[in-house]
Amino acid sequence: MRRCKVLFLLLAALLALAGCGTSYPADPEGTLDRVRGGTLRVGASPNRDWVRLPSGSGGAARVEGKEAELVQQFAERLGADIEWVTGTEQVLADELKHGGLDLVIGGLDDKTPWSTHAGLTRPYTESRDSRGSLHRHVMLVPLGENAFLLELDRFLLESGQA
Prior knowledge:
It comes from Arthrobacter nitrophenolicus. It holds the Pfam family SBP_bac_3. Keywords: Lipoprotein, Signal. This is Lipoprotein. This protein has about 160 residues and is α/β, with parallel strands linked by helices. It is built from 5 helices and 7 strands, in the order H-H-E-H-E-H-E-E-E-E-E-H. Strands 2-1-3 form a 3-stranded parallel sheet, sandwiched between helices. Strands 4-7 form a two-stranded antiparallel ribbon. The longest helix is centred in the N-terminal third of the chain and has 17 residues, at about 1-20.
């Protein structure tokens, strides 16, 4: 009889937890929900073909390159406009850490020193530098924004980039 009571209580607790409506993965800061149909704030650090800042941008940041094109496609998928912010990796990683950006690009690889400040996508492509060293490229997102990170990783995978 006692065993039945314990089993009943465990089952009741499990059902109560299942009904809480919590979904995983979650974004504690709501990044994916805020960006979808809104604005994706992207930090872009110039790095050869990955991220280029053409001259004559005329005040508004224009960003081009392989990663910029991917971000534009991702934003379209989310129905979001892009607000570009340009700067050095250090400045952009700090801005990401403090909530001012949703994503940082710049030809970064999985050995980036900013991994303590940010979440990293799965490596989505590889390249070799002039010395023959292999680089596995990633993008940076805010730490803990796992639903946003998962959506970006899915996009990169579905677009043939991961």
